[in-house]
Amino acid sequence: MTKVLILSKFAAFYLCRNISFCLKIRYNSSMKKNCVISFVVIMLCSLLFSCRSLASEKNDPGSESAEKILSELSVQQKVGQLFFIQPDQLDFSVPINIVMSRSKVPHTHLSSGMADALEKYPAGGFVFFAKNIKNPRQLRRFVRQLKDASAIAPVIAVDEEGGRVARLARNRKMGLENVGPMLEVGKTGDVSNARKAGEYIGQYLSEYGFTMDFAPDADVNTNPENIVIGDRAFGSDPELVAEMAGAFLEGLHSKGIKGCLKHFPGHGDTKDDTHADYVAVVKSWEELKKCELIPFVRNFDSTDAVMLAHVTLASIEPGALPSSLSKTVVTKKLREELGYKGIILTDALAMGAIEKNYGSAKAALLAVEAGNDIILMPQDFAAAFDAVLEAVQTGKISEKRIDESVLRILRFKGYR
User: Are 266 and 228 in contact (CB under 8 A)?
Assistant: First the structure.
């Protein structure tokens, strides 16, 4: 796209110079030659700008229908839409373990190598972490680079819950107020405070070009030994959490930001961390419906997405698969029994509970087969992408199955 713009500008300059020359003085053979060249340049410009216009339309949600966009995508582009990754994962010159670390080798702009990688692995969305954010000017530029380099408008997402999970607000150079942990908001008992928190976060995310927030946390924090949720949850009362989460979503929506309920089917009654390894939930499905599932079910009509946790529901998953990779949980329970119609995404597949036990390629295939629409941050993006692409090309996974998710994603992005 950058090359097209440079060539277009050069052609426009040459065209204007020669047309002006032809208009001002009489024709001779040399001038005729210049005018012929100018005409050729006109045609070239028309072609270049029309190509850019077509690309711009695909990158402009609302300008085309989702069905039309879907019909024009290659299998490779369709598979790409399923993957939401860290921008860093486009840099294949850096070892994977370093790329996925929280602080080493931070990527704060789109390099030419990363842009080339995006053409081969056209990811559908990007997730920013603290290491990707230096200051307001840099952040706006990085977001714009990713959007401009993507043929299809990407989702630009971040974990901005407030409190200890606030990638922007915890950076002093951003000059933002941290709304604080949601537990403190929940303690007020006033849902307007949750709405205000969502509005404030939504406002500054919108200003920096983000389109999605992986928030609010809809977990019911009932286990005092919980080391991963804690004050990220609104509280231990499912009714309160449901109301607060719904109000927070309203706040985000008022500023044009899409929200995401997490971590289905509930990470609140656990004491171990899926970032590290396997975590089991001992409650039965019926017990979960009376507590953990309430905030999710109550807000299905207002949330934009539901994120699946890597916890294993031993009572209903015979294969001991984590919920994020379980067709029983994703399709049979969430989609069919509970009737959720929107976007479903995994939690980050790079987390220990998944990467240690399945690896990137196998986990990505299981995630698609389970019924997830979005595969979030596999440790080895290229391996996961290639595995899903090959599965579709060989018929192991039907293209129709991929189309179902891509159509949801395109509509989620705002295509008509």
Answer: no
Radius of gyration of the chain (CA): 24
CB 239 within 8 A of CB 294: yes
Which structure tokens are listed for 118? 């995006």
The one catalytic residue in 217, 219, 237, 347 is 347
Query: What is the distance between the alpha carbons of residues 270 and 251, in angstroms, rounded to a whole number?
Result: 29
CA distances from 309 to 10, 219, 278 (A): 52, 10, 11
E-strand stretches of 143-187: 155-158, 160-162, 165-166
Strands 160-162 and 165-166 come out as: antiparallel
- Amino acid at site 194: A
Residue type, 333: K
Would you place residue 103 in the very low, low, confident or very high pLDDT band (cuts 50, 70, 90)?
low
Q: Distance between CA 233 and CA 328 in Å, rounded?
A: 26
Angle at 7 between CA 76 and CA 70, to 5 degrees: 25
Residue 219 has phi, psi (to 5 degrees) of -70, 145
Q: Is 107 a catalytic residue?
A: no
Which residue is catalytic, options 253, 272, 275, 403? 275
Distance separating alpha carbons of residues 317 and 323, to the nearest angstrom:
8
What is the token pair recorded at 306?
A: 């539901």
The C-alpha atoms of residue 262 and residue 266 are separated, in whole angstroms, by 8
Residue 212 corresponds to which tokens in the numbers above? 């999605």
- 275 catalytically annotated: yes
Q: What is the pTM of this model?
A: 0.86
**Residues ≥6 apart with Cβ < 8 Å to 159:** 127, 129, 165, 167, 213, 214, 215
Query: What residues contact residue 342 under an 8 Å CB cut-off, 6+ apart?
Result: 300, 303, 304, 305, 306, 408, 412
Does the pLDDT value for residue 54 go beyond 70?
Answer: no
